[in-house]
């Protein structure tokens, strides 16, 4: 009985140690409309690119920043890379 209980206690203790709060993922459009939050997110992402650069919020904030910069220059609306179809 002790052989069964001890591993369960250890597993439940370890599971509770690393509970990370799930971060809400904001869309590119949301970041385009919320400039202050986009600027704050980009500052966080650029301060720690090794851990954060590939997170959905950093990617979406970067894309929103590119779109905002493009529209400021009067350029074309840029399609996300996922929408571009490559033909052979």
> What is the number of strand segments?
0
Count of helical stretches: 5
Elements, N to C (H/E): HHHHH
The 3D shape can be described as elongated
Describe the biggest sheet?
none
What is the straight-line distance between the termini? 64 Å
Provide the structure class.
Answer: mainly alpha
What Rg is obtained from the alpha carbons, in whole angstroms?
21 Å
Determine the mean pLDDT: 79
The amount of helix comes to 55-70%
- List low-confidence stretches: none
Strand content: under 5%
Features:
88 residues, mainly alpha, 5 helices, 64% helix, elongated
Task: Provide a brief overview of the structure.
The chain has a domain at 23-73. The chain has helices at residues 2-17, 28-33, 35-47, 49-52, 56-72.
Task: Give the secondary structure arrangement, pairings included.
Layout: H1 2-17, H2 28-33, H3 35-47, H4 49-52, H5 56-72
Helix pairs in contact: 3-5
Characterization of this structure:
It contains 5 helices and no strands. Helix 3 packs across helix 5. It has a domain at 23-73. The N and C termini lie far apart (64 Å). It is elongated and about 70 Å long. With 88 residues, it is mainly α.
């Amino acid at each position: 009985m002790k052989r069964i209980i001890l591993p369960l206690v250890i597993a439940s203790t370890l599971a509770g140690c690393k509970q990370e709060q799930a971060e809400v993922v904001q869309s590119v459009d949301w970041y385009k409309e919320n400039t202050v939050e986009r600027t704050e997110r980009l500052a966080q992402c650029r301060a720690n690119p090794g851990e954060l650069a590939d997170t959905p919020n950093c990617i979406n904030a970067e894309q929103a920043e590119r779109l905002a910069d493009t529209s400021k220059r009067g350029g074309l609306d840029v399609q996300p890379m996922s929408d571009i179809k490559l033909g052979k």
